[in-house]
Structures
1.
Amino acid sequence: MIADIARWLDTAVAEGRLRSIDRAFARFLAALEPGVDARVLATAALVSRELGEGHICVDVGRLGEMEASLGEPERWIGTSSLVADPAGDPAAPLVLDGGWIYLRRFWRDEARVADAVVSRFGNLPVPAELDVELDRLFPRDGDGPDWQKIACAIAIRGAFAVVTGGPGTGKTTTVVRVLGLLQALAHREGLPRLRIRLAAPTGKAAARLNASIAGQIERLDVEAAVKQAIPAEVTTLHRLLGSRPDSRAFRHDRDNPLHVDVLVIDEASMIDLEMMAATLDALPAGARLILLGDKDQLSSVEAGAVLGDLCARAEQGYYDVDTQAWLATVCHVDVGPWTMPTEARALDQHVAMLRRSRRFGDDSGIGALAAAINAGDLAGVRSVFERGDTDLAALPPSPESVAVLAIEGRGEAPGYAHYLDRIEAARPAADASFAHFEAWGAEALRSYARFQLLCATRHGDNGVLRQNERIAQGLLERGLIETVDGWYEGRPVMVTRNDYALGLMNGDVGVTLWAPDGQGGMALRVVFAVMDERGGERIRFVVPSRLAAVETVYAMTVHKSQGSEFEHTALALPAEPSPVLTRELVYTGVTRARRWFTLLAAPDILGYAVQRKTQRASGLLRRLL
Ligand SMILES: Nc1ncnc2c1ncn2[C@@H]1O[C@H](COP(=O)(O)OP(=O)(O)OP(=O)(O)O)[C@@H](O)[C@H]1O
């Protein structure tokens, strides 16, 4: 029993077992129902704490493990009016659903997502001669099933499709072909053009897709009119839905749905449950939804693991006999090894996993490392580093050596000295046109993005804050920057809060440069590539004092790096084990690298992280199966 809930809450906060916000929530509920069973309040605080860790719900059977005094919750949890079952009082703040306890808002979000997905299960009519179209779009290429072709077929047949795959497995290529095919079919049947929208959870991810999609459309083997009907502009989800400052609500919702027939969302692993619920709410009933992402990456910063849940069974396929027979007809492939007719579920028929990386061939160290990490294969991880591939290196993790690598790079793989050299070498004359300064700013941003140091944490000796200090100091000592205080030329900064007035989004990175001040002189300005209304990129110089929420970004957390890629990526792990060190974190860090990856970690810490696979509690998969 908990004799004094106020004391219990205070002690738990003091001991770091609860956050203040969890305690505040329990106190709020206590005020709603005076005399409520203290165990219900403790449960509410624990559910709130678990949400902070990304879990949508808590297994009632585990409450006793979390807090011994909660005993056998099954016996008392349903007796409070604060807890209702799904059919019960809709005002009850906690919901008990099949042995899982939720805060109502998250239970509702989960139900909304599940309903929207289930409503899109089933097969749409497919055109005659789809096999001919697919053969044309996906010429035979290597042995084994062509998973891109399979993914394309699945996306054509259903109003809901998930295409998952590691870096460079062809998600973008596949979706462009899906869109080309859908538009060509509409064109052929004399139907209006489909209204297609492309979106990503962050500005960075949107800009990256934006950069690759135009080229993909250009290479598509379809009529010019069809090409023109595929948009190349990618927007952020916030912008798509119409975010309102200071409000969680969006302009587009169930009552004011998006004007869209097909919505494609890239980097879907970054979308939390609440955002997914809002997106699906705003999607008209007849619209198609195609989600792209890498299921093995870190889950969203906020609670939920929507893509992970949707793709939990992607590896094995679980195609049913109908899907198997249909894929044999339209794709001429045998997915026999991926069929399990007795286990197959409706969701499985809408998911395809791309398995061949075009970016990282068989001889790529980065590709092999990412695969070994994903498999939790420590011996494999070790042997990849021992192969001596030039794209990979593991260096001693002392904080000082991290700073040296970050500045000097290794071999051909650049460090930060490179972009500072480029800024100097490409500097326009003081009287050059503003267009020259814009081009220079764009080059500074491109050069900066060739390298990035990633850290697991913000704090600690190998965390972002200390590494930022060390790298700045190292650059100062080498004469590459003039000071380490305040604003100085070369300082790279990351925006930490959306600023709609400036068009800057959380996660955007800018570089500080001496640039024309508009009054005939020069002043420090921060150059950003901002997205315009049409999804294109525009160079913008911002006065530093207008940037209310920025921080230096020689080092950034792996979490913040999601949706970005760098030619050379270095990952520094802390010396001590920590709860943030997980397989997904290391995999996400490694797969940010396009050409070179450098690991700065002790072997035992890497092993510790690779063995820890995260599992976020959520009921989404249960609802969908
Ligand atoms: N079927 C294919 N035939 C030839 N080249 C391909 C094919 N599919 C993809 N590629 C090439 O492989 C590279 C990666 O493809 P793509 O960008 O579509 O992958 P992705 O999974 O979207 O990558 P990312 O990890 O960047 O999101 C591109 O250069 C693309 O042109």
Note: The mean pLDDT is 92.
2.
Amino acid sequence: MSVISSWNLTISLNTTISLSWRSSLPSRASFPRPKKPKTLVVLATALGAKPTVLVAEKLGDAGIQLLKTFANVDCSYNLSPEELCTKISLCDALIVRSGTKVTREVFESAMGRLKVVGRAGVGIDNVDISAATEHGCLVVNAPTANTIAAAEHGIALLTAVSRNVAQADASVKAGKWERNKYVGVSLVGKTLAVMGFGKVGSEVARRAKGLGMQVIAHDPYAPADRARAISVELVSFEEALTTADFISLHMPLTPATSKMFNDEAFSRVKKGVRIINVARGGVIDEEALLRALDSGVVAQAALDVFTEEPPPQENKLVRHENVTVTPHLGASTTEAQSLYHLLDYLIWLLPFSLPLPSIGFIALYYDQEGVALEIAEAVVGALKGELAATAVNAPMVPAEVLLELSPYVALTEKLGRLAVQLVAGGSGVKFVKVTYASARGPDDLDTRLLRAMVTKGLIEPISSVFVNLVNADFIAKQRGLRLTEERIVLDGSPEKPLEFIQVRIANVESKFASAISNSGEITVEGRVKDGKPHLTKVGSFGVDVSLEGSIVLCRQSDQPGIIGKVGNILSEENVNVNFMSVGRIAPGKQAVMTIGLDEEPSRDALKKIGEITAVEEFVFLKL
Ligand SMILES: NC(=O)c1ccc[n+]([C@@H]2O[C@H](COP(=O)([O-])OP(=O)(O)OC[C@H]3O[C@@H](n4cnc5c(N)ncnc54)[C@H](O)[C@@H]3O)[C@@H](O)[C@H]2O)c1
Ligand SMILES: O=C(O)[C@H](O)COP(=O)(O)O
């Protein structure tokens, strides 16, 4: 019994990072479950009051209970689109299944409050992902908990069509006894083409092999070794169509798979093929399927999913005598939807004092967290500002990379904040260059998170927009901000990921002229020292101040007594100086004094600093 270990990282709004460890047993599904800690995303969010989670479709009780430990939970099912839009502005998170369309209007109606959409299941085709991203709303799903349920339903439909179970049942219930009419076809030795060899598809394949079928699969993105491991041959779309006796669909609905099964595809299938769809209705052109059924090209179809759900009463496919239908039941088993947790079973087993190996076996078999728990964990984690393993619309940063980069995450955001506050007028920022100096090779540094944090730092002080890893690139583009990145490869030890980071803003004037470097750009540079972000350069002046609280930058003609005068003004106001450094061009010439402050000084105190005779210019910057 192997144990999956996981690291969870937390980044809160002030970008402090915490690390916790958890372990869990592998799930019953043999398709590798995403190792939560390996792929993570930052959702920096700060929620003062208890957040509100709207659960818009039935969710297992285990999930509801978990949500209630952290949030106010509003379970309102069967909301009309208008009702959903009305409610959403009062919610921080929304949990749906496939029955709720989370449209652009929903995100617009949320007016910035909605931070997470949790899809309690796999398919995210009912969520407008672009709109979510534009609104900085993280979308998470529960990709593994219903895999087995869906695969079993696929097999149930496969066996049902081969033996006319639904039709024969209806006939007997209608008082008939038609033994000759419902002669079926055998599965053994027949070829099954699994279209989409992902989690569900591979579980269907495994089960079909157990029924004695020849299994082939078509999936342009599936790794060959996964197929080889269960002796399934990966084939082209053409070969799948032309050789299969049964076709089972398991791909997602995307623009590429939409109506993949159309007249053209049906013109190439083996006459009498049987089709099972437990994926999404939209992957089949339903009109084309009807024609293929009527002409006998397709002998039978079993459909769990439809383009429109529920399908209209008059839908000819639903009423077709060679079509077996179920109302999107693929994920609907008690085990998939609710909690069958390892611990419950271990506790249940205790009185039996079973030997350890059998406990292990049973525990492994029943380690089904259920969709409800999987999505509740993801949503609560995201609301806490933790990192979501199942994020759909944000780049994933491996946990170990994130841990190493954490102080640089804080540094980049603060450099962005400082740089933009140095711009005269604060706006008009269009060209930003971020330079990363490192002894590591260019492929050895993932800067996506750092870039997002510079954007956050640049935009948040001058707008009301909430920027996070989800929407940083979109917001930058929308505001016409061109952020370019540059790498400087230094000699030395690659132990540290970065030596220094520089943020430059071109084509702007500065309210602190000394911040303009020789290249004519506002320039701030920082390093991480003892795990803390430090400002180490402003313009062409070397400085050194820890980036916390706020900062006063002050240029003076280099002479004795200035530090004392500034210190006096601040101490009269009870403002604590946490750090001070002076960087000068040459003794007796100009110097830039950097003062780190714990409290914000009054306007009056700042005015007094400006009035010190030797002070040529100064600026107060909030971090
Ligand atoms: N009926 C239900 O209740 C139910 C339950 C669970 C999943 N589903 C649906 O089943 C589908 C598969 O779910 P999963 O968990 O296995 O997802 P998955 O992401 O693990 O697998 C999908 C596979 O489809 C493949 N694919 C993508 N484009 C393809 C194409 N053009 N041709 C062939 N293959 C392609 C991908 O490479 C991937 O391997 C999804 O549409 C999901 O929404 C339905
Ligand atoms: O994509 C999925 O997970 C399935 O279609 C399940 O959908 P459901 O949560 O509405 O049952």
Note: The longest strand covers residues 4-11.
